[in-house]
Design a protein that fits this description.
Strands 6-7-3-2-1-4-5-8 form an eight-stranded antiparallel β-sheet. It has one domain. By secondary structure, the chain is α+β, with helices and mostly antiparallel strands. The model has no long low-confidence stretch (mean pLDDT 92). α1 packs antiparallel against α2. The longest helix is centred in the middle third of the chain and has 16 residues. It is globular, with a radius of gyration of 14 Å. β4 and β5 form a beta hairpin. It starts with 5 loop residues before the first strand and ends with a strand.
């Protein structure tokens, strides 16, 4: 994955394109980028905002109750069935994604992009 690569965040079950992620930094297991939301992202924004809020809280306080709430939010995000589609048409079905305002980070759960 290269800096400058672009991915669309999509919900295939509804045909929605929720936004575009542009890679700004890569590490061994994580990718950072900018996120430009489309209007279709608006209904999902509260879930991503809650995920970001809980992640910040957990960084300061490893309270098991907070962790349980964060896991429930993550389950909600994963249940959306989102994909990240690269410009080549390949991308990721299995990943962890965080969106906080116009910043995004994701961690692929599979090492290689797959045809989508």
């Amino acid at each position: 994955m290269k800096i400058g690569s672009r991915y669309t965040l999509e919900r295939p079950t509804t045909g929605e394109v929720l936004g575009t992620l542009t890679v700004t930094d890569t590490e061994m297991f994580a990718v950072a980028g900018t996120f430009v939301a489309s209007p279709a992202f608006d209904p999902y924004r509260p879930l991503f905002d809650e995920d970001a809020r809980l992640a910040r809280q957990l960084a300061e306080d490893p309270d098991p109750e907070l962790l349980e709430r964060a896991e429930a939010v993550l389950d909600g995000l994963m249940s959306l069935g989102l994909i990240l589609r690269g410009e080549s048409g390949r991308g990721y079905r299995d990943f962890l994604l965080g969106i906080d305002g116009d910043e995004a980070s994701f961690r692929p759960l599979t090492p290689e992009e797959v045809p989508l």
